[in-house]
Design a protein that fits this description.
Blueprint: H1 3-12, H2 14-20, E1 25-28, H3 42-58, E2 67-71, H4 80-90, E3 97-101, E4 110-111, H5 119-122, E5 127-131, E6 133-134, E7 149-153, H6 159-167, E8 174-178, E9 185-188, E10 197-201, E11 208-211, E12 218-222, E13 227-229, E14 238-243, H7 249-260, E15 266-271, E16 290-295, H8 310-314, E17 321-326, E18 360-364, H9 370-382, E19 388-392, H10 412-429, E20 438-442
Parallel strand pairs: 1-2, 2-3, 3-5, 4-6, 5-7, 7-8, 8-10, 9-11, 10-12, 11-13, 12-14, 14-15, 15-16, 16-17, 17-18, 18-19, 19-20
Helix pairs in contact: 1-2, 3-4
Pfam families: LRR_At1g61320_AtMIF1 (PF23622)
Protein name: At1g61320/AtMIF1 LRR domain-containing protein
Domain At1g61320/AtMIF1 LRR: 56-446
Amino acid sequence: MQMQDAALAACVSLSFLRSWRCYPKLMLSVDSLHIKEDASRKDEIKREFISRVDHILQNHSGMGVKAFSLHTYPCSDLHPSYVDHWLQIAITPGIEKFELSMFGRHDTKYNFPCSVLSSERRSSIRSFFLAVCSFHSAAQVGCMSSLTNLRLHSVNVTGEELYGFLSNSCALKQFYLSNCEDIIWLKIPCLLKQLDILHVFGCLKLQMIESNAPKLSTFSYAGDAICISLGDALHVRRVDFRHDRSPGALYYARTKLPLIAPKVQTLVLSTRSETVNTPMASCKFLQLKYLEIVLCAPIFPSGYNFYSLVSFLDASPALETFVLRIALPTIRPDSIIEDSGGDSSRPQCLSDQCHDRLKNVMITGFCSAKSMIQLTIHIIEKTKSLMCLTLDTTRGHDRRFAKIDKCLRLSKDALVEAEKARVAIQRYVEGRVPSTVNLKVIEPCSKCI
């Protein structure tokens, strides 16, 4: 039964009223309380939200709560006394899931009262989520013996305070940290012997990540190039690495990641501003099986060398799947279609190395750039194990909106480039593909426009 239905039933039945007072899941938000949003009546929405939450919690016995979620958007700058009172009622012994997402001015964040987490209350919490709060007393919370999932978003907490909290959360398995701008050094203690997943996104002042968690298997990072240490990293199998602003992300990944996570098997790289070619380097990804590179910049420099990505293929002797995505395709000033220099598609080999285990290659946003054609020809000629080659001139047919049967929209420039790419495939690629390889060429349809 939905919370609103349970509340309505409690109004007409004493038996339902008694069950409502022990209702185990309290999910409180403007949406769940069916308060209509209207920008012209913000103060009225705020008063109505306070009134309804007050009424619900006053009629609840405070017993049997297993999950509590409070999202205050769009009610800005709620007085802390309201929230303090609600938390005192809702956080009861036996609670397992807690979420608090505040909405207000970022310079005056709500200060989460760690006093509500007494020993008997905090001992049962398995999932803990804070957003847009201050958490400066984190280190004084005490032992969170059951906590397995921790998410902090836009929370004011220092690295030292967070380290103290983590040291008291030895059962932790998943940790998501995003937009926490007070942290300069993130240190994960070796006491977290069960930590499996670590995600760190958008912490602008962060300069170093040091993890000593012995069983970490998945690491995701989005931000500037910083110093990263994952300890022995013997269990790290998946790495997602995204540079939204700083150039040189692929350079960093190619030269540093083999040392940071030497046993990675799945690697996803994403960058918005790539201005250098990928270097050849001696370090290798010896166990890498899946590699995905996403290039998001809307306009690449005319001299960008896609063929330099061969460096990643040469460094990955166990690679089975390679995916290259041009997230925002557009007209290429370095199109091979407009090159008058004869058969310029023949690459000047960076390496004679063969890719003996590579079976599946997909390039989305495939374009007519000379270096893109050279990369494709290199893969065809150096990969005897190749089974499937997908050249997708759209933004990614595999990522279309399947539920509504709609493709990702292409700009007019991207549609022009897609036609050039189709001609380039016919002219330079199709005749080189062995009969044993399944070549799939995907072109824009009416739903891409």
